[in-house]
Amino acid sequence: MGSAAGGKNGGVCGASTVFLARGTVSAARFEAAHASATRLHPRHLGGELAYQIAEQFRVLGKPLGLKDCIIVGGMDMVAQALELSRKPHVVIATPGRLADHLRSSNTFSIKKIRFLVMDEADRLLEQGCTDFTVDLETILAAVPARRQTLLFSATLTDTLKELQGLATNQPFFWEAQAPVRTVEQLDQRYLLVPEKVKDAYLVHLIQNFQDEHEDWSIIIFTNTCKTCQILCMMLRKFNFPTVALHSMMKQKERFAALAKFKSSIYRILIATDVASRGLDIPTVQVVINHNTPGLPKIYIHRVGRTARAGRQGQAITLVTQYDIHLVHAIEEQIKKKLEEFSVEEAKVLQILTQVNVVRRECEIKLEAANFDEKKEINKRKQLILEGKDPDLEAKRKAELAKIKQKNRRFKEQVEHTLQQQKASRAGRRGHPPRARPEARPGPSLSSTHPLPAQPGTPSSS
User: Fold this and answer.
1) pTM over 0.90
2) Residue 395 has pLDDT above 80, yes or no
3) Where's the Helicase ATP-binding domain (predicted)?
4) Poorest-confidence range of 149-163, 187-201, 210-224, 333-347?
5) What burial class does residue 344 get, using C-beta atoms within 10 Å of its C-beta: 0-12 exposed, 13-18 middle, 19+ buried?
6) Mean pLDDT of all residues in the chain?
7) Which long-range contacts (CB under 8 A, 24 or more apart) does 339-348 make?
8) Domains of the chain, with CATH numbers?
């Protein structure tokens, strides 16, 4: 499904290439800031998508003498500044790096642009761990008020719906109508596997696909960079032509990995969700979800890497006993039931021990390479680039964690006290009040302990 919106400060078109055609035909020279789905951040992919979009601009814009400029993180800022000084017609950028140039340069300006395009708008405008608010505010403050703004998204979120209602001018809105959220040519299946033996099933699946279709390309999606790297190392041990793509890799390494996969030098790409959006690799026949996506829209973006442009494709999701509810949520969103994929379990059991041993060897090797330490170093570098003190940020996060823990404990204590009080009241309601014991007759105080006689009173004896 695709959706897009715009108005006078906005208009819309079906895709980025259509925007190029309309813009260049109506004006020989124009400028555009095209924001990709991600920003300058070591955990997210934006450069690959930006370069892919730039290729389309170059193909369609060559007869018009179109000049473009790519501004993404991980590349030399000085060289990028020189490119910007040549006044390109089109700037394809990630929000973080474009905002960096606006903050650090007194000469670079986007005050005269006529078109602002936001691709993957649902991701750009969502808040949370990937919050682009600060960068977008910097960019929007630098662009002219009179411009055409275009938003594109494969998934329509509540934020985009709210934005449509908040627009000062009535925006044009278009949404592709389809009975299901995924294409008909996509065969979607699930494989129910125990959590502890998931890797053995994965190796068996790949072996079957390689035996039956040697020329097929496969993308395997994982949930973390570490898992991505471990699986890549593990599959290479089994002599599968595998390359990894995740945000812990340098930008040039990611470009090289993607180029090798596109050119079929490597037939298997293991990637995190950085590769789930926008990347167009037409020859992918199979997508395997090593983990069940936590959100249906992530699933839609992942499986969208295959069955493109009318081609056939297959998507298989490895589902553990803990993921059943996630599958139901996905089925409800895509309006389609996933069919079960069957394998020969006896063959999986034959390779189980070998796979577990190889996986453990790869984990030890990765630990020796200080993979987790490199991740922390990258985080510190990112904080420094954002103008923050890593030590102060760590201290702030530690204090915040303590406050959260204290609040959690207090909440638990309150809940425990309320439960005790509730149980106590229920107990009193369920049992009649105890009867007071009857007073038994006993010796009187006077007979047991005779009072002394008052002075001047005759004795009873």
Assistant:
1) no
2) no
3) 48-174
4) 149-163
5) exposed
6) 80
7) 339/187, 339/188, 339/189, 339/190, 340/189, 340/190, 340/191, 340/192, 341/189, 341/190, 341/191, 341/316, 343/191, 343/201, 343/204, 343/205, 343/208, 344/204, 347/204, 348/197, 348/200, 348/201, 348/204
8) 3-175 (3.40.50.300), 186-380 (3.40.50.300)
